[in-house]
Amino acid sequence: MNASIIDPLQGDFPEVIEEYLEHGVMKCIAFNRRGTLLAAGCSDGNCVIWDFETRGIAKELRDKDCVAAITSVCWSKYGHRILVSAADKSLTLWDVVSGEKITRTILQQTPLQARLHPGSSTPSLCLACPLSSAPIIVDLNAGSTTVLPVSIPDVNPGLAPSSRNKISDGTPFSPTAACFNKYGDLVYAGNSKGEILLIDYKSVQVRAMVPVSGGSVIKNIVFSRNGQYLLTNSNDRTIRIYENLLPSKDGLKALGDLNVTQDGIDDSVEKLKAVGSKCLTLFREFQDAITKMHWKAPCFSGDGEWVIGGSASKGEHKIYIWDRAGHLVKILEGPKEALIDLVWHPVHPIVVSVSLTGLVYIWAKDYTENWSAFAPDFKELEENEEYVEREDEFDLIPETEKVKESDVNEDDEVDIVTVEKDSAFSDSDMSQEELCFLPAIPYPDVPEQQDKCIESSSKLVDSNNSGSPISEEGRPNGRANNHASSPLEEDAGATRLRSLQQQQNDHN
């Protein structure tokens, strides 16, 4: 619906399930940058791309090399590529338009999440968070990997992660959450000690550290669309919002300047904390004070004004919506199915969730029409009133309009080519051709007359008991699948032709 006729007092967040999408068993979802296409990874290793405007399947990326479940999907900045991570330890980069694989890389651990570098239109670098090892930077072209630090080393920040995060005493490794900042020059990682590390992935060094209150394992870390806010989800059942104090562009350079100003501090840990305090500041905390539930797949709305989190409890499909001030404004209750993934539409007040059964639910707003938005002088009547129209009210050209002089210059050319820049996508490079929709591929229909001929010939062969009927496997739905005749069929046809000629000769 047109945003200009929406009543602002109704709240700009979804309320009810509008419809659901069904195709196999879907596990994870991701919108492209404009929200026109929705990619869904399935349990059979395939990736489905839905046209979100028509709710139809625009393309299906079938991978013969992968039969394991998809763990995450990620679009490139302009939508021409999709990165898919799977449970068979693979990372696959797809070309969306052609539907062909660009590269395929096998890691040593199963990647739970993989994100393409956001600063490039054709990225070859990605950030992967494996199941039981530290986050890694993967060069998809070269197949090389760089392990990132997940704790502050005692001597050199460039060393490998400390033994505290390794599988040394038989206990499982706590997965580390990580994400790029808006332009991809820094990696923000949340570790098992409740610390947010700002990492320069090119030099593999920790440049700043922000301790999270409670010191619990950080399970999710997500940036808002504009890069102004950072969200963390910890094991202490609390979602925290941090305000990003670094500039959106050249964040690494600003971070280097901050390190220089703190050179007077001898202790490296205290220095990193001092720098971190100038990078992130705690803005809000969200939690359910009554049930103390764990949260699943929290994220921001497209404009960053709302925060959502799914209940991690089994057997319930609940979505909590807060405003950025910290007030709980809505609880969406779905079917009795566990929620496994959640995403907010980049532009519209629409939330899409994935259930454990593999269905994708689309939550939208239940709009109430406000007719005064169409005409400011519109007045709702409680009861009928008699109205006397003017004499020229229904004339094609009323007398009142004849008096008015038109101030429109009819000789001016109307520009229908220039695309106005959308404020919601202020960082768009308009010179880059962005992929918003996929062309539909029509399948040619078999002509009806040809169908009848095929059916009649099939019946003739069956009734003639010539010893070579067309097998049922070659005739799905009662139609011949292969128009090429077998040798036996040709012999049977020739026999029938000779017998018909003999009958005609006898008759003559």
UniProtKB/TrEMBL annotation:
Organism name: Prunus dulcis
Family matches, as Gene3D superfamilies: YVTN repeat-like/Quinoprotein amine dehydrogenase
Compositional bias of kind Polar residues: 455-469, 498-508
Keywords: Nucleus, Repeat, WD repeat
WD repeat locations: 26-60, 70-104
Main location class: nucleus
Domain of life, per lineage: Eukaryota
Cellular location(s): Nucleus
High-level lineage: Eukaryota, Viridiplantae, Streptophyta, Embryophyta, Tracheophyta
Region ranges (Disordered): 452-508
SUPFAM superfamilies per UniProt: WD40 repeat-like (SSF50978)
Protein name, entry field: Transducin/WD40 repeat-like superfamily protein
GO cellular component: Set1C/COMPASS complex
A Pfam family hit: WD40
